[in-house]
Amino acid sequence: MEKILIIICVLLLVVCMILAIRIGILKKEMRDITNQIIEKKESKRNQPVTVGSFGASSVELANAINDYINELSEMLKEYAVDREHLQRIIAGISHDFRTPLTSVDGYLQLINKSDELSDKEKEYLNVVISKVGFLRELSDDFLDVSLVENNDTLSKTEIALIPFISEIALEQNEWIEAKGIKAEFDLPEKNIKIISSEHDLRRIFENIFSNARKYANSWLTLKVTYDESNASVKLIFENDVAEGYDIDVDDIFEPFVRSKDRHGEGSGLGLYVVKRLCGKLGIEIEATFKNGVFGIEMVI
User: Fold this and answer.
1) What is the radius of gyration, based on Cα positions, of the chain?
2) ∠271-273-276 over CA atoms, to 5°?
3) DSSP character for 282?
4) 267: which residues sit within 8 A by CB, 6+ positions away?
5) For residue 236, what are the β-bridge partners?
C-alpha cells in the first residue's frame, strides 16, 4: 500500500510539473503575442502575429488575431479612400457654390445702390444680402475644412511674430470701429521669431478675430507674452459676450458648434479649423468662458 501511495504521489507530482510547464509556456506565448501586437501598433508594420509552439489553441488565437488585423487594415484603407473622395467632393462643391454666390452678391449690391427702391424694399434687400454673405462664408468654411483635412505637409518658415500679429490686428480695424468695439492689443516690443506656416498661422488668427467679430459685445483684448525659460509664446484672446449667450468650452472646437442660443452668426466651423491647424502646427490651444468673458489661450 505504501508503494502505491508513493507511485500515486510521484504521478501527481509529474502531472503538476507538466501542467506548470504547460501553463508557463502558455503565459509566455500570451506575453509574446501581446508584445507583438504592441510592436505592430507602435511601428505600424504589417507583420503577422506568430507563436513559438504549434499548440492548437495558440495557433488558433494567432490566426484569429491576424484575420481581424487584416480585416481592420482593409477597412482603414477603404475609409481613407472614401474620406479623401468626400473631401474632394466638398472642396468642389464649395468652389462651385461660391462662384455664383459672388455674382449674386455683386448684382444685389448694384441693386442696393438704386434710388428707385422704397425703404421697405431696401430693408428686404439688405436681409437677402446678409444671407448671401452667410452662404459665401459657409462655402469658404467648407473649403477650409477640406484643405485642412487633406493637407498633412505644411510649409514652415521663420516668422517675426509681433509684426505678423500687428498686421492682422490692424486689418480688423474696420469692423471694430463699425461695431463700436473697444480693442486693446498688448504686444511686447521684443523681437520674437518662430518657425511655423505663415499661411496657416494667419488663418488661425483671422478665424479667432472672425469669431470675436460675431460674438464680441463691447470689447476685445489680445495679450502676448514671451517666456524666455522655454522660449515659448502665450497668446490670450478675450472678448465679452452679450448676456444670454451660453458657451460650452468642452465642445467649442467641434464642427458646427455655436452658442446654445443658436442666434449667433457663422457656420460653427471657424474654431474647428483653428483647432485642427493648431494640432498640425504643434500649438497648444484651449478655450475658457467665465463671467461673460470668452477666451482662447494659445502656446506656441
Assistant:
1) 31
2) 110
3) T
4) 137, 138, 141, 142, 256
5) 223, 297
Burial (CB count within 10 angstroms: exposed 0-12, middle 13-18, buried 19+), residue 7: exposed
Q: How much is the pLDDT for 105? A: 80
Task: In whole angstroms, give the CA distance from residue 33 to residue 51.
Answer: 7
286: which strand partners? 297
Q: Which residue has 524666455 as its cell numbers?
A: 228
Which residue is associated with the grid cell 502656446? 299
The number of CA neighbours under 13 Å toward the Cβ of 194 is 21
Q: Which of 179, 144, 143, 187 is nearest to 163 (CA)?
A: 187
Distance from C-alpha of 74 to C-alpha of 214, rounded to nearest angstrom: 44
**Using CA atoms, how far apart are residues 40 and 46, in angstroms rounded to an integer?**
7
Q: At 35, list the grid cell.
A: 508584445
First to last CA, the chain: 84
User: Mean pLDDT highest for which of 36-40, 125-129, 267-271, 282-286?
Assistant: 282-286
Beta pairing class for 293-299 and 284-290: antiparallel
Mean pLDDT of 2-25: 73
Q: How far is CA 53 from the centre of its chain?
A: 45
Strand partners of residue 82: none
